[in-house]
Amino acid sequence: IRFRVNDLSSQGFIWENSSESRLMSLRGSDGFLSVAGALTASGVITGPVGAVGAPAYTFTGFTNSGMWYDTAGTDTLAFSFGGALAFTANTTLMLVASGKLHIDGSGTSTVAAGQTGLAEASGTLNVSAPHDVHIFLDNDNNASGDFSIYANLTTASGTPLFKVTEQGGPIVFVNELTNSKMTIGMSIKTTALTEVIALKHSSLSHVFTDNHEADTFFSISAIATTGGAIVEGISEKTTDGVALILSGVVDADSSSTGKTVTSHGIVEVWGSHELSGGYDGPPTNTNLFVVGVRFSASLGVRMIVDKEGDIYYFGGLVAFDKYDDALMIRAHSLALSQRGGGKGLVRSHYDRFVKYYERELVALGLLGAPVKEG
User: Fold this and answer.
1) d(Cα 30, Cα 12) in Å, to the nearest integer?
2) I want to staple 87 with a disulfide (CB 3.0 to 4.6 A). Which of 80, 96, 337, 351 is the partner?
3) Per-residue pLDDT tens for 130-139?
């Protein structure tokens, strides 16, 4: 049975109900079929492949927005908005063209220039241009569930810029892959002698900016490529002049009061040599602890404590208690003997070295008042 109409958009077929409500229409110009209700079929409904500017499945009044089949891909659906490609998707890859997002489940596709890649990868994650950033669940290096961020790399087998691993962790890696000596923590590998860790404060603005930014108050850096660490605190000009405090706190009644070579203290500083990969005592006369002044191009040592406990210092050694205890006790005895006119006190020719008098004893509280006042 053949029904023929002119190939005009104004002609075709219309199916109506008894109330003259349109149920379905078929346009004569292009075969466009419009159904008022839901369209179901027991078989397969097929349609054209479509293209980016003419999707196969669109919406009334929006002929250039919808879904179509991308023949350039493998079983790939494409979505257009306003005649432009929005994103494509298949079983392994979703690519958002306008947002520059590349989500990959195969680990083998190439991320285009300027796109950000997000993938679960166990193989190669290719970079087609510099400055690409790739974020993916990394199954390489026998570490299932790792989260990695790469940049400017050709494959996923390189060293990530940032990585969080569950293997023996969690451990956060920066420019590093593994650390067998760490269970939970952060491992950072530097390639320079600048700051490795820097802590900042929003209200800080110091002028010590040759090695640190003006808002940095604490930093850790390497001494040299052979190792060693510099721990530095930086502060603005203050009345107390404090830049770094090392403080130790223990529970009450748990402090060590021993005074032997095996005693401990609340804050301890140790120096060792290496032996067979472990700790060992340094040679005789090794300097364990040094205090000094750091100049612009040199260091000025002011005190040294060596392995044997000998102390070497530049300048005078002054205690907070500036009084000679033995002479102070003798001065106290001489002062008290004045009450009895000096009776009962055996004089010594060493008394001439006593340089303290009643005024010092009263000032220190050893006497309440001069002896003559009772």
Assistant:
1) 10
2) 96
3) 445 556 555 5
